[in-house]
Amino acid sequence: MRRPLIGLTSYAEQVKYNGNDVMAGMLPMSYVKAVHATGGRAVLITPDDPGTDVLESLDGIVFAGGGDIDPAHWGAEPHPETDADPVRDLSELMLMRAALDAGLPVLGVCRGMQLMAVATGGSLHQHLPDIVGHDRHRAAAGTDPLAADSSSFGRHDVVLQRGSRAMGMLGGRVTVNSFHHQAVDDPGRFTVSGWCPDDRIVEIIEGRDRTFALGVQWHPERTSDLRVFAALAEAAAHRSGLSRTGLAA
Amino acid sequence: MRPVIGITTYVEPATWGVWHDLATALVPHDYVAAVTGAGGRAVLLPPDDLDADVIGVLDGLVLSGGADLDPELYGAEPGPLTVTRPERDSAEVLLARAALEADLPVLGVCRGMQLLAVAAGGSLHQHLPDVLGHEGHRPAPAVYGRQEAIFAPGSRVAALMGDDRVVQCYHHQGVADAGSLRVTGLAEDGAVEAVEDPARSFVLGVQWHPEVVRDKRLFGALTAAASARKATDKTAHKAKSEAAGDPMG
């Protein structure tokens, strides 16, 4: 039996490597390794392509982290700290809506979770420190947030809604890393199922219907706790008839 | 649905935005633009040596450029200037062999051409200036060498390239023995510039970088071969379904 094929949205960025300085389609290997470690096969979906036909090849999709979403998509003016990539926004909003319409299992990570909300009519807080009065959702100012390891992120707890799909996966309380300055305000078509207990910032959203759709505000791919990636792989395998449970159903 | 073209990625420590030397799957965006411009849908294939099942969803494959192949793959000791990426090698050799086996249309670029030759039982020169006595194929860091290629009459590459035979090179290794492939292009100094497998639908390797000029002659031929294969697959699938009395076709 083949592994479920999991698409990962990627960036088009000017990057430096080995003395090169080029525009590249790219994604940190931590996402790729998280998919491979949980039984999937990762392919990267570049953000500049005007079409959603690629979804027909996939069994599941991860919307990865990255920059801010243009607030015009929920009818707001940009905050001075908001820095958006319009090309990636348009491409990923189109992919998100098509994936949800097709019932493709979806996992949103950080920006990816925020995209789930915005794509379904929700909205974001553009700069958390303005709302909660502290900056603990991202690494301390002046530190390199990912240079060493996940300990460079801010860390905090998340409490989960009893009876939610996320609680079935993660239990009632988890400690997570954190690196973001925006957050979900209105979750759109999704239900909030996890919060930071200190400030009630939304940390998890999930779908109400049978389709697997889960968004997390933290970065599980940078930790050894890959349960949300495993859940995506299982849902993807099930949908495509690649698992034993899928065949039995 | 457009033909899905997989592009193998580099894995390099990359620097962008706030991130420094983060292990990243990346490929120069030129490859993606070349595939998109030729009517394909690009997906990026980060290395994964567990299996090559991903070729089941591909209609065509681009083996991208990058670092040197491990000389062990062709039974040689590494030379002093040979720089390898073992993670890519093991995954891409698996992928290349499976693609050849499945008669998937393949375009190999630079390292990708060398990989095709090695997968076909051939071998490489580990440092071309030692063989040729000049640095014309990689004149300086990040500077392409301009070569005028000579193509074998009647070959695929000769038909595709026509009269415009000027190519942009950037490599220090080269094909010494093309194995079961046919050498169909040479530089004026005798360096191998193109290899093909006349026994397969579309297997072409070029030592130069057609993606930097978005060369529709080569990328267009790849996507055309990929579309043709896709159409054949569909017909075969339909015939099989009808024979089995499957009303879903």
UniProtKB/TrEMBL annotation, chain A:
Keywords: Hydrolase. Pfam families: Peptidase_C26. Coiled coil: none annotated. One of its GO terms (cellular component) is cytosol. One of its GO terms (biological process) is polyamine catabolic process. It comes from Pseudosporangium ferrugineum. This is Gamma-glutamyl-gamma-aminobutyrate hydrolase. One of its GO terms (molecular function) is gamma-glutamyl-gamma-aminobutyrate hydrolase activity.
TrEMBL record, chain B:
Residues 230-243 have a biased composition (Basic and acidic residues). It holds the Pfam family Peptidase_C26. It comes from Pseudosporangium ferrugineum. Keywords: Glutamine amidotransferase, Transferase. InterPro entries: Class_I_gatase-like, Peptidase_C26, PuuD-like. One of its GO terms (cellular component) is cytosol. GO terms for biological process: polyamine catabolic process. Residues 230-249 are annotated as: Disordered. The keyword Acyltransferase does not apply. GO terms for molecular function: gamma-glutamyl-gamma-aminobutyrate hydrolase activity; transferase activity. Gene3D superfamilies: 3.40.50.880. This is Putative glutamine amidotransferase. The keyword Transcription does not apply.
